[in-house]
């Protein structure tokens, strides 16, 4: 019983130490809501440029237009036929 408690304590401390290391590492990556919105808007604009016929060659994010031809319907026969 004591050994189990010691092991549980050891793993709890190890976990806390790991969480502190992760928090310390990620602390510098925190952004304000305005900064996150700006990043989202710029990323979306670049994806749209990547899909555009005229803007694709110079876009930062290259995209290929794709379309979903079928979705699973539960029948078990979801083989696409071309």
From TrEMBL:
**EC category:** transferase
Signal peptide positions (record): none
Q: Which GO terms describe its molecular function?
A: ATP binding; D-glucose binding; fructokinase activity; glucokinase activity
What Enzyme Commission number(s) does the record list for this chain? Answer: 2.7.1.-
What family, per the record?
Answer: Belongs to the hexokinase family.
The protein here is known as Phosphotransferase
Q: For the Hexokinase N-terminal domain, which residue ranges apply?
A: 22-75
Q: Could you list the residue ranges forming a coiled coil in this record?
A: none
Which cellular components does GO assign to this protein? Answer: cytosol; mitochondrion
Q: Which Gene3D superfamilies match?
A: 3.40.367.20
- Catalytic activity, per the record? D-fructose + ATP = D-fructose 6-phosphate + ADP + H(+); a D-hexose + ATP = a D-hexose 6-phosphate + ADP + H(+); D-glucose + ATP = D-glucose 6-phosphate + ADP + H(+)
Q: What keywords does the record list, in alphabetical order?
A: ATP-binding, Glycolysis, Kinase, Nucleotide-binding, Transferase
Query: Domain of life of the organism in this record?
Result: Eukaryota
Instruction: Please tell me the species this chain comes from.
Output: Zoarces viviparus (Viviparous eelpout)
Among the record's GO biological process terms, what is one?
A: glucose metabolic process
Q: Tell me the route in metabolism or biology where this protein functions.
A: Carbohydrate metabolism; hexose metabolism; Carbohydrate degradation; glycolysis; D-glyceraldehyde 3-phosphate and glycerone phosphate from D-glucose: step 1/4
């Amino acid at each position: 019983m004591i050994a189990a408690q010691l092991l549980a304590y050891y793993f709890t401390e190890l976990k806390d130490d790991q969480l502190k290391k992760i928090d310390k590492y990620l602390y510098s990556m925190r952004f304000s809501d305005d900064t996150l919105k700006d990043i989202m808007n710029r990323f979306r604009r670049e994806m749209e440029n990547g899909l555009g016929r005229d803007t694709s060659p110079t876009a930062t994010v290259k995209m290929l237009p794709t379309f979903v031809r079928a979705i699973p319907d539960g029948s078990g026969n979801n083989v696409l036929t071309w």
